[in-house]
Specification:
By secondary structure, the protein is mainly β. Helix content is 0%, strand content 33%.
């Protein structure tokens, strides 16, 4: 993850792929101390002879002072929408 402020991490940081196409779910985590705003980031993939990057915009919003009561669902997690 390139251009991320301190407190923003990508998991997993590295993956190994073989000769066939690979699909991997990546998770971006944002700590509470990250300032609200929009961050222009890049996800980078590299091999010995190839380097690819994908641009994405991460928008961090301030936490709500009184979050609404939301129903609990199994599986958890948040969805981050990115723009190319």
């Amino acid at each position: 993850l390139v251009g991320a402020p301190s407190g923003v991490t990508l998991s997993p940081e590295n993956i190994s792929v073989g000769s066939s196409p690979t699909t991997q779910t990546l998770t971006i985590s944002v700590n509470q101390g990250v300032n609200p705003g929009t961050y222009n980031l890049k996800v980078r993939a590299e091999s010995v002879s190839l380097r690819k990057e994908a641009d994405l915009a991460l928008t961090v919003t301030a936490p709500s002072p009184n979050p609404p009561d939301l129903p609990k669902r199994g599986g958890g997690g948040n969805t981050i929408l990115t723009s190319p």
